[in-house]
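Project outcomes to date are best conveyed with an example. Our students and postdoctoral researchers have been running inverse folding experiments weekly, and each run begins with a structure described purely in tokens. The record below, which covers 298 residues, was selected by the lab manager from last quarter's runs and is presented without edits.
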């Protein structure tokens, strides 16, 4: 792990009242916001999507890609657990807070690193959340990065408004929306897409998680959560939004996240791994095109 002059950052006081894609080629820290990783539908499986995308971007054959993963789920920071970083601390240097590194080219920042225990509750109102998000964006020394993935909590609340506002000058590439096939999930996701339109945040596309189960033995697919209203595919057609892909259920995803291991490394032959890699490729192509268009305007 890479740290600079280990001066621990002050921990939070839990009892105290209390997923964006973008790349820039200039600037000291290239704090690119390759867009928020997503407003996403509630539930643990969708929440596992941002760290998997971050790991995949930083993994071979993209080893030279420098990725920053920022967790702004202030009240439910699960990124440290999923990335195998529980118990790690944030350190301060002359240039700011140092992220916690999973790999040389994959840095992570989360409120979870500032808690004395992973079971501590952060009971904060909006202004304190907004202040911490601003501090993460202002004071974390990411170094030179190619992608900043911002993992957000479900909904369209303070965290989402704050990150869009604070990164407005960075020209966010867009949001990746995570859903599951059920209509109860799609109802929330439609609101999140509407939120993106209202704040003029481009929608890179939608990912349907928990999309069927492919038997590892017979290879037949079963719909564990039937898309009673057509699922993400039908919704994307109706709303004129890109469907980036569908990730099938795989028990190994949950096991890998619980153990803090890379699912892509643990199950390279899984259909879910193929889906993840295809989705990431489409996101990269979108971001590259967006960046190219920006350079033409400049």
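After processing, the design step wrote out the following sequence:
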């Amino acid at each position: 792990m890479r740290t600079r002059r280990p001066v621990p950052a002050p921990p939070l006081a839990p009892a105290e009242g209390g997923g964006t894609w973008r790349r820039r080629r200039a600037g000291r820290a290239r704090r690119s916001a390759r867009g928020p990783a997503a407003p996403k539908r509630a539930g643990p499986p969708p929440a596992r999507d941002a760290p998997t995308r971050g790991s995949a971007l930083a993994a071979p054959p993209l080893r030279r890609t420098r990725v920053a993963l920022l967790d702004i789920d202030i009240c439910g920071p699960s990124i440290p657990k999923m990335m195998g970083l529980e118990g790690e601390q944030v350190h301060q240097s002359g240039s700011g807070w140092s992220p916690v590194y999973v790999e040389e080219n994959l840095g992570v920042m989360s409120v979870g690193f500032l808690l004395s225990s992973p079971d501590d509750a952060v009971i904060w109102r909006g202004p304190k959340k907004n202040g911490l998000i601003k501090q993460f964006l202002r004071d974390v020394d990411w170094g030179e990065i190619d992608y900043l993935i911002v993992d957000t909590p479900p909904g369209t609340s303070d965290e989402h408004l704050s990150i869009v506002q604070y990164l407005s000058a960075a020209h966010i590439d867009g949001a990746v929306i995570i859903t599951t096939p059920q209509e109860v999930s799609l109802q929330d996701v439609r609101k999140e897409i509407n939120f993106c339109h209202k704040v003029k945040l481009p929608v890179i596309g939608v990912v349907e998680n928990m999309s069927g189960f492919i038997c590892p033995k017979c290879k037949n697919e079963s719909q564990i959560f039937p898309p009673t209203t057509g699922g993400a595919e039908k919704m994307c057609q109706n709303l004129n939004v890109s469907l980036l892909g569908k990730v099938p259920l795989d028990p190994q995803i949950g096991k890998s996240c619980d153990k803090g291991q890379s699912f892509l490394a643990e199950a390279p032959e899984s259909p879910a791994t193929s889906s993840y890699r295809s989705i990431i490729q489409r996101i990269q192509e979108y971001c590259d095109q967006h960046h190219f268009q920006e350079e033409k305007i400049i």
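Residues 1-18, 21-47 have pLDDT under 50 and may be disordered. The first strand starts at residue 7 and ends at 8. The training component of this project remains on track.
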